[in-house]
From TrEMBL:
Gene name of the record: cyb5b
Family of the protein in this entry: Belongs to the cytochrome b5 family.
The keyword Iron is assigned to this record: yes
Main location: membrane
Subcellular location: Membrane
Keyword Metal-binding attributed: yes
InterPro entries reported in the protein's UniProt record: Cyt_B5-like_heme/steroid-bd, Cyt_B5-like_heme/steroid_sf, Cyt_B5_heme-BS, Cytochrome_b5
Domain Cytochrome b5 heme-binding: 21-97
Protein's organism: Clarias magur
Protein name as annotated: Cytochrome b5-like
Sample GO molecular function, one term: metal ion binding
Alphabetic keyword roster: Electron transport, Heme, Iron, Membrane, Metal-binding, Transmembrane, Transport
One Gene Ontology term, aspect cellular component: membrane
Domain of life, per lineage: Eukaryota
């Protein structure tokens, strides 16, 4: 009796493309913050950039500063080329867990402002 209970079929919130997508929490990503094991979050995707550190044209320092955390802003601030964006794919390991995303447009989590209160 082999127990082959992969949760392949569960629908929930997975992107349709691939049911084997892995999800990581920010906390899990945070553990990978050193040069021998470095992960980054960019646009809610998780990358293992350990192999890339010494190849980065912008140097490994800047990557290490961000290792284990969300580098979306720094990545965008630099204005990385399309090439750079394509390189990301090679290091992709999974998605940021839904609960840890920055609620761009999901659920009913709306921030109320009082702009129109007259
Ligand atoms: C895995 C993520 C990243 C990849 C694949 C990547 C890739 C690249 C590539 C290919 C370049 C050459 C210029 C270009 O094509 O745009 C570059 C330059 C640069 N990157 Fe990144 N990068 C990453 C993350 C970051 C992060 C998080 C930072 C900042 C904290 C950063 C800072 C820089 C800087 C400052 C340069 C400019 C270097 C120069 O022109 O002297 N990069 N990066």
């Amino acid at each position: 009796m082999g127990e082959e209970m992969k949760n392949k079929s569960s629908s929930n919130h997975l992107p349709a493309e691939d049911s084997d997508v892995k999800f990581f929490t920010r906390e899990e990503v945070h553990a990978h913050n050193m040069s021998k094991d470095a992960w980054l979050i960019i646009h809610d995707k998780v990358y293992d950039i350990t192999r890339f550190l010494e190849e980065h044209p912008g140097g490994e320092e800047v990557l290490l500063e961000q290792a284990g955390s969300d580098a979306t802003e720094s990545f965008e601030d630099v204005g990385h080329s399309t090439d750079a964006r394509e390189m990301l794919q090679q290091y992709y390991i999974g998605e940021l867990h839904q609960d840890d995303r920055k609620n761009e447009c999901k659920k009913e989590v709306y921030i109320t402002t009082s702009k129109d209160s007259r």
